[in-house]
């Protein structure tokens, strides 16, 4: 997952974009970048690393201008080592465009081939985002007439992007001398929202992956961008929008609610925090059916993401709730780190157990999800080392059994701990005395209870159903080859 942001301001925006990227850091820890527009030039700085490590004062000074875009990256195509794949991306024609993307295209290799063969465009990285930018640029070139760009041409270009690109994309682009354009794929798989702020110089607008970036920077949340919709914010701060997809349908990624998004965000009308509380309630009912509650002395979350669910589960079952694992606040999220070796090492660096909370007790550990089992395997060991008697485990999400191709880096089935294993076998594998998973219907209900309009979800990592159509075997094989290691 990546975090994206765009600001159309009335004063220099570099600091606001920096601050918003800090608020989106949980969505991508590998690289960060900002591109601002000033007079007739774009200024850009991007590099590998966390936001606070990437931008020094001199870099911030090199980013003047009252509008700009920014991104924090968690790669799903290409590699985390290649600084050229950090975003924003830039193309000089037509007009000059800087571009940020969250999501993943499943047909980017054939599009790249087409772009070269038919459109005479060379793509210089293995990033699907660079491909998407060039498709957009090509379509803008075709739709625009003469030197002047108008709304119709921009909306027409987005419509063709929707027809050509397959996969998930939330995009914010700046077009020189025109303004900002943002759009979401026809299924709205990846999130994107709009906010505004009144200043003494006039209205400022911000677009961001999550509402926490808006509110944390003093903007108020206006609305989510609709699936398939494109929004234009022109240089005068006027906002216009149009539905550009033939058959848009909201099919948000369920994993955002489980893990990715911050709990203090509002996404497609749903508070992520409240959704996680609900997950805890439904999971509690399932735990009550599967385990003997009298056997459980204490419920514990695995920090951070499972906290709301664990708390609510304990309350519903009338069990003690304790924080037995303490998190080192200076270590980032483990799951989105690049490579299994670093992820494995980080769990021990990140979490440590308070022995007195475990000694002689039967503990029920709650996590939001079990994906590769990197966390759960080590955590169960740590609980035992700390003196726990029995260690039960429950996951607020169902078993993850299928690769994700829409912006979450789970490229191969083989790496998923649930692949080819029954629940008992997974329990054995992580060393738990009992293991309970959320049912998919209950997970969906946890979100839908809060917004009945959400009738369907992108839940492919749980059920293997891909909303953009079947994923061809060649793509999956290539994904596994290029990213699996
Ligand atoms: O089964 P795994 O492959 O280990 O993946 C799942 C774990 O990874 C995530 O934690 P992470 O440390 O990334 O972030 P958090 O601090 O937000 O919980 C998630 O919350 C689970 O704990
Ligand atoms: N997680 C994402 O949104 C990734 C964006 C893009 N596919 C990249 O790899 O850089
Ligand atoms: Mg976690």
Characterization of this structure:
Helix 5 (128-143) packs across helix 6 and helix 11 (340-350) runs parallel beside helix 12 (374-385). The model has no long low-confidence stretch (mean pLDDT 96). With 485 residues, this protein is of the alpha+beta class. The strands form 5 sheets. It has a 7-stranded antiparallel sheet with strand order 3-2-4-1-10-9-11. A 6-stranded antiparallel sheet has the order 5-6-7-8-12-13. It has a 5-stranded parallel sheet with strand order 17-16-20-21-22, with helices on both faces. It has helices spanning 14-23, 51-54, 57-61, 108-117, 128-143, 151-164, 211-215, 254-260, 272-290, 307-317, 340-350, 374-385, 423-430, 440-448, 460-463, 473-483; strands at residues 3-8, 31-38, 41-48, 67-73, 89-91, 97-105, 167-175, 179-184, 193-199, 202-208, 220-224, 229-234, 239-243, 266-267, 270-271, 298-301, 320-321, 325-327, 351-353, 363-367, 391-395, 434-437. Helix content is 32%, strand content 24%. The chain contains 16 helices and 22 strands. The radius of gyration is 23 Å and the shape is globular. It starts with a strand and ends with a helix. Bound molecules: 1-O-pyrophosphono-5-O-phosphono-alpha-D-ribofuranose (PRP), glutamine and magnesium ion.
